[in-house]
Amino acid sequence: MEMLKAIAIGLPLTVLVTILALMIGTVVALPIVAGLRSRNRLIWLMSRGLVDLLRGIPPVVWLFMLYYGISIGAVRLSALQAGVLGLGVVAAAYLAEIFRGAISAVPKGQWEASSALGFHRATVWTRIVGPQTARAAIPAYTTFAIGLLKDSSIASTIGVSEIVFMSSQYARQSGSGILVFFVAAGIYILLSVPLGLLSRHLDVKMRKAVAR
Amino acid sequence: MEQLMIELNPQTTQPVVQVKNLAKAYGSNVVLRDVSLSVAEGSVTAMIGPSGAGKSTVLRCMNLLEQPDSGEIVIDGHCINAGKKTSPKSLAALRRSAGMVFQHFNLFPHMTVLRNVSLPQERVLGCSREQANEKSMELLKRMGLADKADQYPSRCSGGQQQRIAIARALALGPRVMLFDEPTSALDPEVGVEVLEVMKELASTGMTMVVVTHEMAFAENVADELVVMADGGIIEKGHPGQILKDPQHERTRRFLRAVLER
Amino acid sequence: MNNLVDVAIEYGPTLLGGLKVSLTLTILSLALGLPIGLLFSFGVTAKNKAFRYISVFFVEVGRGAPALVLLQLMYYGLPNANLTLSSMASACLALTWTTAAYSAELIRGGMQSVPSGEIEGSHALGMSYRDCLRFVVIPQGLRIALPSLMGFAVLLFQATSLAYSVAVPELMSQAYSIGSSTFQYLPVFIVAGLLYAAISIPATWLSVGAERLLSRHL
Ligand SMILES: Nc1ncnc2c1ncn2[C@@H]1O[C@H](COP(=O)(O)OP(=O)(O)OP(=O)(O)O)[C@@H](O)[C@H]1O
Ligand SMILES: [Mg+2]
């Protein structure tokens, strides 16, 4: 019980890091997707390179660069800032790929039909392609969110006192490592259950709205 | 209830296939009710009927791809009773005696054409690789496909793929060949290649049951025509006779729809 | 920029030595984890209860828990059970677990997407259940799963960077120790990052290429 309490103290930070990184990732992903869909070769190449680089370097390296390597004048990023920022930009790259895939999964005929009907570009995005893209992206998006929840544990390496950080600390103090880490594993698994359920719920809802 | 079955003349030779009182339902959806059928040695039976009549289900029950709820199936002396549990051994024996050709070929895409035809011989009959390959090449030649042996199925046209599937089934030396709409997935022009092969097969005395929408094949090649509707056999007899003078109103309606297209 | 080049020249050999350890760890974990994953892919739906429960436990925990937790479990946790492993061995065990768990699901997905018609075809030919698995389902399932397994291998390679937390002398831990002794954090981490990228990015292209190639063939 005492153990559970000690670990659970890290829960809010785990959730916070995950949510903030997901928000940053989602927002930053949008311009990257635009870049990946651009007909301008240079913009495309730069976006492609950015995505590959962000995904090609392990998140822990990004966090270390941001935390230990960056100082603006005398100011360094806090562990939380570095963690959220690092995980957020890496998430942006993965999410950009997910969104790009979902957009290209919308059949070409939908664009053609929309043009034939004389819709505005904005209308096409908000009414036709947007909803179908969201529908296609949701399963991958939630899977990614669950992955991000687990990756938020990487923030412990730069000292963000989330679940894994608290678990290690408690394990060191109490010397009961096996149980502590199994409990930590259990917490992550429990946390991902509601996300999975939410995903299924959204999927069912969207399926009703956008029948295939 | 009206008795839908029409009794046949007693067969002179021992039938190769006998289906007795077959019934099958998916949940509350009754798909087959009391279907009985016998197929004489060397004869070709064509099965026609509207979509959803249960033609595929009859065929798939014959080699136990579908488990019937009740009834009995005898193929070449191997007897399967729906009520009793079938041993894997008698199931294998039954399936060996019945070759099946599907609408969508169901070739193995990750093996060459030759491997597709040879592997079942090796695994089911226990042939050596050389024996199997020799037999396969002979069959592929007969199908006019000897040059395709080392290709992958995806590189062959639909008609070629279906002929490979026929060769694959024939290679196991079945006593009866079951065809489930073998030309429905093919362009008419390509379908002809397959029909030619089937005609040739019939002329060599192979016993065949063919579910088809090809009326010309049913009329010219089949010895016996079976008309199914709503999970039962409503009419059977000589093809020419039935096509000229159908007895059952449902048959008339179906034939009008098919022929007047 | 000069700084970067200096660091790369001076510490290149040490970092490359670390990269070698990272790659070794990746390959060992794959070599051990993939066969176990294949086993688990059957286990999670097996009729035998003990086999099924064990498989489900390892697959669910292996996928549900962060790799970092598994690493620390093996390194700091196992000594409680009177089993002390070297840092390399415990990292290898943890990542093998991750590999087995993820690959089990990927392989199962691959096998499920083998068209049912082909399985029926083999049944209609009288092939046994085992032969159907051996000649039709497993080879095609693995083939379908191959691109995603390759994608996973890239992620696994990146995950080895977490093994620094259990004192495996891989690339990340070399970079960190150089960084903390020279305070040249940024250039060292950039060089280390580029080394990771130099492996991951082409490997990702390879997996994308494999996907295109295979989907064309089938
Ligand atoms: N696996 C199944 N589960 C539930 N219902 C099924 C299944 N297979 C077939 N059915 C139902 O059984 C009925 C008969 O199907 P069957 O495929 O035998 O018809 P068919 O005469 O071959 O038709 P078609 O000409 O379209 O091939 C149909 O109503 C079908 O919906
Ligand atoms: Mg059918």
Automatic annotation (TrEMBL), chain A:
Gene3D superfamilies cross-referenced by the UniProt entry: MetI-like (1.10.3720.10)
UniProt superkingdom: Bacteria
GO cellular component, one term: ATP-binding cassette (ABC) transporter complex
Molecular-function GO terms, alphabetical: transmembrane transporter activity
Compartmental location: Cell membrane
Annotated CDD domains: TM_PBP2
Pfam families membership: BPD_transp_1 (PF00528)
InterPro entries assigned: AA_ABC_transptr_permease_3TM (IPR010065), ArtM/GltK/GlnP/TcyL/YhdX-like (IPR043429), MetI-like (IPR000515), MetI-like_sf (IPR035906)
Stated name of the protein: Amino acid ABC transporter permease
From TrEMBL, chain C:
Source organism, top-level taxon: Bacteria
Transmembrane segments: 23-44, 56-77, 83-102, 144-165, 185-208
CDD domains for the chain: TM_PBP2
Domain ABC transmembrane type-1: 19-207
GO biological process, one term: amino acid transport
InterPro entries: AA_ABC_transptr_permease_3TM, ArtM/GltK/GlnP/TcyL/YhdX-like, MetI-like, MetI-like_sf
Subcellular location: Cell membrane
Keywords linked to the UniProt accession: Amino-acid transport, Cell membrane, Membrane, Transmembrane, Transmembrane helix, Transport
Any one GO molecular function term: transmembrane transporter activity
Pfam families attached to this UniProt entry: BPD_transp_1 (PF00528)
Cellular component GO terms, alphabetical: ATP-binding cassette (ABC) transporter complex
Membrane topology, from the record: Multi-pass membrane protein
Matching PANTHER family: L-CYSTINE TRANSPORT SYSTEM PERMEASE PROTEIN TCYL (PTHR30614:SF0), MEMBRANE COMPONENT OF AMINO ACID ABC TRANSPORTER (PTHR30614)
NCBIfam families the UniProt entry points to: HEQRo_perm_3TM
UniProt similarity note: Belongs to the binding-protein-dependent transport system permease family.
Protein name, UniProt field: Amino acid ABC transporter permease
UniProt organism field: Arthrobacter wenxiniae
